[in-house]
Amino acid sequence: MPELPAPSVPQATAPVHEPRREDCPWCGSGRLRNRLRTGDLRQYKPGNFTVDDCRDCGHTFQNPRLTAEGLVHYHRTVRGAPRDATADALVALRGSRHRHLSAARAMRGFGEPESWLDVGTGHARFPATAREFFPYTSFDGLDDTPSVVRAVSAERVEEAHVGRLSDPRISGPLRARYDVVSMLHHLEGAPDPRAELHAALRVLRPGGHLLIETLDPRSVFAALLGRWWLPYDQPRHLHLIPPRNLRAELETTGCTVLTLDHRPTHIPHDLSGATSLALSHALPAPDTPWRAIPPPPFRRHAREALLRAGLPLVGVAALADHLLAPIARRTRLANTYRLIARKSL
């Protein structure tokens, strides 16, 4: 997304939340508990955010949730705003070529689809990778940013759709058009993940397949690391859905869940991500466009020097992540899962 001029302080601190809700958005239970309260640990934008979970179904969600305007604000790249480069690089692992190859390979056992829609495609790097396994498939992309339009020019997808799949103006004309719909790390950022799921089923043909990869809030690392657990990524992640909830929702629609697995999708970045975030926030605060008085130069230089000095510590944590990965993938330490479901005929 292109950089925009830094907003003024009133714009950056304007209310961007919906009213707080007292029930679970997934099951309707009123038995909620607070998981954490935090700020924007990666991009340092102003604001405080609360994550609750449901004692009955385990659904984890931002409460109060950002408004549509708030989502735009916190996804926007602001010129001059600091970033945690190490944490950003770890988050980017979710969209690495290696993981895209793994997701595409998982679909080879279901035949070659004629048409495929990738939801939340961004720059459509996943369709470009999946085409290596499915050269005769027609790939389309959907995203709520104009990036997907540029992906058409780059010949990564054939058609681009801008918006949300749950918008009837988008899903209506696409009804029963696709053999495969993929949602890779899309549901956690969707304001209404259930509506996105049902819209995905509407655009699938009977017998078509739904491929989902998303974060698991039941991960032991989530409890151990608290607000430093990188997958929380407040305020950009709105919902974290436990696997049993996603399975039950799809089965109630008549779908058959064919695969539900953590092993190929676990991302070994829990300890290194927490170390990077904690280190960054233990140091002198960075300069930001919304600070009334910038820090003196010696504090900026000290921060940069200490961040560089702390990189070996992050490296040690990354090594621990990779050593633990074989165990994590097979236990409750896993942070991500893949679900493949078939729509009923």
TrEMBL record:
Pfam families: Methyltransf_23 (PF13489). One of its GO terms (molecular function) is methyltransferase activity. Residues 1-22 are annotated as: Disordered. The keyword Transferase applies. InterPro entries: SAM-dependent_MTases_sf (IPR029063). The keyword Transmembrane helix does not apply. It comes from the Bacteria. One of its GO terms (biological process) is methylation. Keywords: Methyltransferase, Transferase. This is SAM-dependent methyltransferase. It comes from Streptomyces violarus.
